[in-house]
Sequence to fold (108 residues):
Amino acid sequence: MTRLSVVLLLAVMASALYLVHTQYESRRLYTELHRALAESRQLATEQQRLQVEKRAQATPLRVERLARDRLNMRMATPAITQYVTDDGRAGAPAASAAVAAGPGKAPS
Fold:
């Protein structure tokens, strides 16, 4: 009977230790989960802030102003536009390839 009592006492002690360990792990994981959720909310807020900032940085007016001020660019007007004419030499190989391919077929 004494041996049975000792074995049962050891089983109860092992069970109690396992229960304490399991509760500790559960609390640790619960805390880690809440930290991860808080970080997730913070990252989502940061992402939204960055998207708003990106939209503000990419407005056409701002891009035009930066191009004018920093890059010394100017708007294209007919007065400064340069027109390039085709003298017929550049289009000759493409035209002959189209004729060789036949009507309705694109040159490869």
Summary: The radius of gyration is 39 Å. The chain has a mean pLDDT of 85. Residues 5 and 62 are 84 Å apart (CA to CA). Helices lie at 2-57, 60-69, 92-101.
